[in-house]
Design brief:
Layout lengths: L2 E7 L3 H15 L5 E7 L6 H11 L5 E5 L6 H11 L4 E4 L11 H8 L8 E8 L6 H18 L11 E4 H5 L11 H5 L4 E7 L14 H20 L23 H4 L15
Helix pairs in contact: 1-2, 5-8
């Protein structure tokens, strides 16, 4: 399994089938992948639509997890990542506004020759946002404040299209709404890159977010992320070689050679020859 595509959804019945087919078209023949939908207790026909698709696709291609009640997007995302079988995760919003055809662009950036060895995240920046003017304005203000305070190196942390290491994500501190701060959190232990992607207007359904349920919660969460950033420690580690192995030129000294003079055994403590 090369890639797990995780899609959290809540009441997106009309967007299910088109998006799944687009994911298959974007990734078909490129790699071994799975599509993992996490339904956050939908009350429309979303679950039935997923069940129909699951029966018609190759076994294991589409997996569906069901929350028994609505927990929110961050929890749905984490549920999907925990259940994923691949070491790398691509995420998409379930409303169809992210274009699955951009996933190969993120993969190419991850696999580029100049990619950092500790690259954990490839994040997307939505080009020409297809949202209402009030959402674009509120996002612009929020992104500006967030960049200034968190220095997360992206102008669009809200884009649902991301590619990241499963292990790196699961090592992050979990809290509700943490999906909005993935770049800032990932930078505490690794590197990230960003790429411009397509953004499409919503064709079906209604947005689950508005200015009111994003602004105030986002401010409180941002303060919490700042607290985490300031207290994050990345230790520098070296592995000690066995003291029974003679040192080789260019390698660390043995354990006994690393002892300070005060720690070395005195002449009276040394065994007689």
């Amino acid at each position: 399994m090369d890639l797990s595509v995780v899609v959290p959804v809540l009441n997106e019945v009309e967007n299910i089938e088109p998006l799944v087919h687009e994911i298959q078209a974007a990734l078909g023949g490129m790699l071994v992948y799975e599509i993992l939908y996490v339904d956050d207790a939908s009350t429309d026909g979303t679950i039935a639509a997923l069940a129909r698709l699951k029966d018609h696709l190759p076994q294991g291609r589409l997996r569906v997890l069901l929350h028994q009640r609505t927990y929110g997007q961050s929890t749905a995302l984490r549920s999907g990542v925990k259940a994923a079988r691949a070491p790398w995760i691509a995420t998409l919003d379930g409303d169809g506004q992210n274009d699955p055809a951009d996933i190969p662009k993120l993969l190419a950036l991850r696999d580029a020759e100049d990619a950092p060895l500790n690259l954990n995240l490839v994040s997307s920046i939505r080009r020409k946002r297809r949202d209402s003017w009030i959402r674009r304005l509120s996002s612009r203000i929020a992104n500006g404040v967030r960049q200034r305070l968190l220095r997360d190196r992206t102008t669009d942390t809200g884009s649902g299209l991301k590619l990241f290491s499963r292990d790196a994500f699961l090592a992050l501190p979990y809290f509700d709404h943490m999906h909005r701060f993935i770049p800032a959190l990932m930078l505490c232990g690794g590197e990230m890159r960003t790429v411009e992607v397509n953004h499409r207007p919503r064709q079906h359904g209604k947005s689950k977010y508005g200015v009111g349920n994003r602004l105030w919660v986002g401010i409180v969460d941002m303060l919490g992320v700042m607290w985490l950033q300031r207290r994050h420690i990345t230790p520098r580690l070296e592995e000690l070689t066995s003291k029974h192995e003679p040192p080789i030129d260019g390698e660390p000294a043995s354990a006994n050679e690393l002892l300070s003079a005060s720690e070395r055994p005195s002449a009276s403590e040394r065994p007689s020859e």
